[in-house]
Write a structure and sequence with these properties.
Elements lengths: L1 H107 L1 H22 L1
Length: 132
């Protein structure tokens, strides 16, 4: 009976060893595949980081260029704003002149209104020229 127990134990140990060898072999293949995957991911990450650095450098250069052009264009916008304000003042003056002469023209008729308007405009522009 003792020999039979030893044979059963020996067979069980052999089966266990065989199972462990298969398990270790599969585990080694899996670890090798994981190592290859990590190497590929590392290479791809390095490439992506280099491209991101290049992109950031180009973006910074572009941003500096845009900022310098904005500084160059800023006086243009200031001049346009000043011109707009001047045109608005001239328009207001023209409207005020037209209103003054409209009141005079309602009594005198259309022909007289044109003459009156012409005279008023002449006086207005002669005052502007003398001020300048």
């Amino acid at each position: 009976m003792g020999d039979m127990a030893l044979i059963i134990i020996a067979v069980a140990v052999a089966v266990l060893v065989l199972f462990l060898v298969v398990l270790i072999t599969k585990t080694m293949k899996t670890v090798d595949e994981v190592n290859r995957t990590i190497a590929i991911v590392t290479q791809d990450t390095d490439i992506l980081l280099k491209q991101a650095d290049t992109l950031m450098a180009k973006t910074n250069t572009l941003l500096d260029d845009v900022n310098s052009k904005i500084v160059t264009i800023d006086p243009l916008f200031t001049a346009v704003a000043d011109l707009s304000e001047s045109i608005s003042k001239v328009n207001q003056s023209g409207n005020a002149l037209a209103k003054r002469f409209k009141g005079k023209a309602s009594n005198a008729g259309k022909a007289t209104a044109v003459v009156t308007l012409g005279r008023g405009a002449g006086k207005f522009f002669s005052r502007k020229k003398s001020k300048a």
